[in-house]
UniProtKB/TrEMBL annotation:
Residues 1-26 are annotated as: Disordered. The chain crosses the membrane at residues 34-52, 64-84. The keyword Membrane applies. This is Tetratricopeptide repeat protein. The keyword Transmembrane applies. Keywords: Membrane, Transmembrane, Transmembrane helix. It comes from Salana multivorans. It comes from the Bacteria.
Length: 178
């Protein structure tokens, strides 16, 4: 909780956590997450720039070994930028789906019980997972079901399947818009 007694986070918890309070807390968390991502991105881009400069210097050295090492080293920042672009694009697409569901009133409330350290109770997450999987099996072409399944996988701790389910949800929603 914030040290500021008038913060949105405090009002949401002390005033019963109504819809307006929950939205304020969500915006606060979203802003913090975005700022954290931007900070990590800035450090990563600094790293890419420094490695890229070293690679270009080695390529410019003129020696066969220097050029070969420089080209090999240059592959690291290029691949890093490609992966980074892919992940940022995916995150923005999932964020757009979240906003769509919120506007439709279909966004699930994250009320899973957590440990004092913030870890989700896996047994409760497993129950939600079964419901999400059943929905996808019943309606495999519905992006909303895949979206919920992705977050159910995330809550259950299976991040690779979570990411794939969310990617599938994005593809289905894009296809539905066309």
């Amino acid at each position: 909780m914030s040290d500021d007694p008038g913060s949105a986070e405090d009002r949401a918890t002390t005033e019963g956590g109504g819809p307006a309070g929950a939205q304020a807390v969500d915006r606060t968390r979203r802003t913090r997450s975005m700022l954290s991502a931007v900070a990590v991105l800035a450090v990563l881009l600094l790293y890419v720039l420094l490695v890229g400069q070293r690679a270009v210097a080695l390529i410019g050295s003129g020696s066969a070994v220097g050029v070969a090492i420089g080209i090999a080293i240059l592959a690291v920042p290029v691949l890093t930028l490609w992966f980074l672009g892919r992940e940022v694009t995916q995150a923005r697409a999932v964020d757009r789906l979240t906003d769509l569901l919120a506007r439709e009133g279909g966004l699930d409330v994250d009320d899973l019980p957590r440990s004092p350290a913030g870890r989700i109770d896996r047994s409760v997450a497993a129950d939600r997972f079964d419901a999400a999987r059943a929905r996808v099996e019943a309606e495999p072409g519905d992006w909303r079901g895949w979206y919920r399944l992705g977050w159910a996988y995330e809550a259950a701790g299976d991040r690779s399947r979570a990411r794939e389910s969310l990617r599938h949800a994005v593809r289905l929603e894009r296809g539905a818009r066309r």
